[in-house]
Write a structure and sequence with these properties.
By secondary structure, the protein is α/β, with parallel strands linked by helices. The protein is built from eleven helices and ten strands. The termini are far apart.
Length: 343
């Protein structure tokens, strides 16, 4: 290297000028463009870290929410529904609810209602039993079971009276049950009565002909296809079925007359299937007066405290019903089967 070259001013050489954006970390000198890129990368990394922290916080929140929901469900399962029998030491009026359709697979089934009635009568401190009824009726078999059990329990516990209180509706099979009580009370606008029997179905023969469907039915026994909805109606089968309905209706009438006795008026419409208001029902002798459950407990029983002995659905079943599963099952059942009902 020549002296001239060695004594050159730094401004004239090939040595790159030091960048003002020298890296403090690596000691590297970056051009301005690289410095800007580095800042962008740094901002991106910081934003990703912030997003990760935010995501973790939301994850913790949703996990907490899930655990809180599960804890609430567990608490709901453990928490008793309504008035409880446990811890009742003083005198009280026992309440047994008959809510909704009366059928074997419903809440107002004979198994549920009869079990609650037995517990209510057996309770040492229950002064009387009130049947709180809000039902349009249902199966004559289930209604008959409950009716017979009320009559038996009245004989076994003669000191405990049974009162039936109808709220919105106490018709058909529900009134069948009510007539087993010592006395019946309702609201002036309650619907009471409908002492009759109904059975229905559909006939699809003409529809099948129009769409070209052929019915193929094989039986052993001439009446095994009795009232088949896909076959033409036969008058002898209809007459037989009407006799069955009439016989069931007579059973209903006899039960009501046995329960109500001379309190019923001589009105031929009583057993025609008509429904009456509570006020009209008093005049006809179908109910003894107007009053609510609390009024009966306070004024007639003399024990204002009410204790509910009714069997209830589990909270999980209530949740399923609210989601619409029960509606779907009920709709399907109505579409595929016809059953005898008191109405």
């Amino acid at each position: 290297m020549s002296d001239w070259e060695s004594e050159k001013s730094p401004e004239w050489g090939d040595k790159p000028v030091a960048s003002e954006r020298s890296s403090a970390k690596g000691g590297m000198n970056l051009p301005p463009e690289s410095g800007r890129d580095w800042k962008l990368i740094e901002k991106l990394v910081l934003s990703l870290q912030a997003e990760q922290r935010k995501s973790r916080r939301w994850g913790i929140f949703f996990k907490f929410l899930t655990f809180a929901y599960l804890f609430a469900l567990l608490f709901m399962f453990k928490l008793p529904v309504g008035d409880t029998i446990e811890g009742v030491t003083g005198k009280h009026t026992a309440v047994v609810a008959v809510d909704g359709p009366i059928a074997a697979d419903e809440l107002a089934s004979a198994d549920n209602v009869v079990g609650a009635l037995r517990s209510a009568f057996e309770a040492e401190n229950s002064a009387a039993v009130v049947l709180r009824i809000n039902s349009p009726g249902g199966s004559p078999v289930q209604s008959g079971y409950i009716y017979d059990e009320i009559r038996r329990l009245r004989d076994e516990y003669p000191d405990k009276k049974v009162y039936a209180v109808i709220s919105d509706i106490g018709a058909s099979g529900a009134y069948y049950i009510a007539s087993a009580a010592d006395e019946i009370y309702a609201n002036r606008a309650s619907l009471v009565g409908s002492i009759g029997v109904v059975a229905g179905g559909f006939g699809f023969t003409e529809v099948m002909e129009k769409i070209g469907v052929e019915r193929r039915l094989y039986t052993a026994g001439e009446n095994k296809a009795f009232l088949d909805p896909f076959s033409p109606e036969r008058q002898e089968e209809v007459s037989f079925w009407e006799n069955v309905l009439e016989n069931t209706h007579q059973q209903f009438i006899e039960a009501v007359k046995s329960g109500r006795g001379e309190r019923l008026t001589e009105d031929e419409r009583l057993f025609s299937g008509l429904v009456w208001s509570g006020e009209q029902a008093v005049e006809l002798g179908l109910v003894d007066g107007l009053g609510s459950t609390s009024w009966v407990a306070r004024q007639l029983v003399g024990e204002e405290e009410l204790v509910d002995y009714s069997r209830r659905k589990s909270p999980l079943q209530n949740l399923v019903d609210q989601l619409g599963v029960a509606f779907g099952e009920g709709f399907a059942a109505q579409m595929i089967q016809s059953r005898l009902e008191l109405r």
